[in-house]
Structure formats: structure tokens, C-alpha cells
Amino acid sequence: MIEPEFPETVQSPEHQQVRGQFAVGYVPGVMPGKWFRRWEDRRHKPSLSQHPVRADGWRAALTSGEIKACFVRLDWEDQDPGVEELREEFRAVALYEELQVAVLDQDHILTVAETLTTGELTAESEPQARPRTDEAEMAVELTAAGVGPVVLPMSVARLHHRKDVTYRELTDAPTVPVVLVWPRDLSEEDEAAVQQFVGIVRGRSANSGRDTPPSTEDESKKKKQPPKQHPKAPQRRGGKGPKGAKAASASKNARRRRPR
Q1: DSSP letters along 34-70, please?
Q2: How would you classify the pairing of strands 100-105 and 165-170?
């Protein structure tokens, strides 16, 4: 998989191009493509721009206004806040928990196992120190060179996959939370866009009233539409109506006057 090109600073020309749009960022490894496609398929406004950011740069990108929301991985980088601490400064929605895996070179003895524990990993090898996400590619390259395994979030391991390495799930390692984060001080328009996007991420359908509220024009048409009128059933000849009664009486008189 090809690694996205991440800008060095949040003030790069690439960042400046997304001002005024609904720009959504994501840190390395997170793959929000399906949610971006749903936004486009439903033709939401404003237009959405996808924006990869460095794992150590999402906070600056949000606070500077370069992006309106960001998919963020917590509890991995040294500077990462916990969820409660994060919500003191930003708004955040927890999305899912990511597994940790051990990346091994293809000839490693532990590749015979389908899954591993941290104890099994350390008993057979000396793993590298946990790298920062932005430096994971180099750590995987060192693993391929035989330096030693490296533990990474699964999506980051997939991002830097190579033919000469593989990975195994660490069954006893804590999961890594992934959240959607956005500033507390967004404009009313930007906050409305974020809330629509949150609905998509949470699986809200396109027909949901919260996702696509009815327009005032549609509502006015409903109010002006007259109530349906059901046609009256036709009366049978000779029924209870006045005309039917007269016809029945005339028929009886004609039979009485017929000569024998």
C-alpha cells in the first residue's frame, strides 16, 4: 500500500486550498473512504475534501481551522490525550477499537502461529521500541532487515505492508481507540455539516429524518393538498331513492290494469 504524502506543517499550500470547504482529516492508517463516498453519494453540501494529516499534527490542524473534523487514534503517541481529557478541549465521538499486532519478518519462527501473546513475542525475540505512527514505515523496514519485530496498530501495519514481512494479532494487548474529533467553537454551518457527517459515520440511513430533513417547500405542498374524496356508490334502479320508489309504483299499476 502506498503511504499518503503528509504535509510538513499545517500552513502548507495544500492546507490553504481546503479553506472554506468541509475538510475532514485522518491520521495514518485510518481508512475513512467508505464514509467519504457516502457523503458524496448523498450529495450533501458543502463539498467534502479528504485531508491526510500527520499523527502529531491533527491538533494544530483543527485549532487553526485548516480542517473541520479529524479521525484520530488515541493512547498511542506520547502526547495523545485520553478520551475524557480530549473532550475538555474538543468534541469527540468514539468509533471503534483497533487491535495491536506484531509485525514479523517472513522467516521468523513465530510466523507458524496464527495469533500471539505479548509473552510469546518477548520470549522468542526482542521487539523494537514502540515507534511513533509517523515513523512506523522505518520500523517496518528494520523488521524486514532482521532487526526485530515491531508492535503497531493493525491499520498502520497494513498501511506499511511489504512482501518480506507479515503480522500476527496480539491477543492480550490493549485495543487502541479511534475517534472523530472536532472543535467546540465551529460556526453554525460547520457544526451542522459535522453533525450530518457523524450521522453517516454512525450508520444513519439516507432516509432518516435526522439526516435529510424535509424542505419547507415539501411541507407547504402537503398542507395545501385537499383531502381525498371517495366517490359515492351509485344507487340501484328501484332502490330506496324517490325516483326508484316512483318507478316501482308505476310498474305495479301497469300490471293491475292489464286486461285478462
Answers
A1: HHHHHHHHTT-SS-EEEEE--TTTHHHHHHTTS-SEE
A2: antiparallel
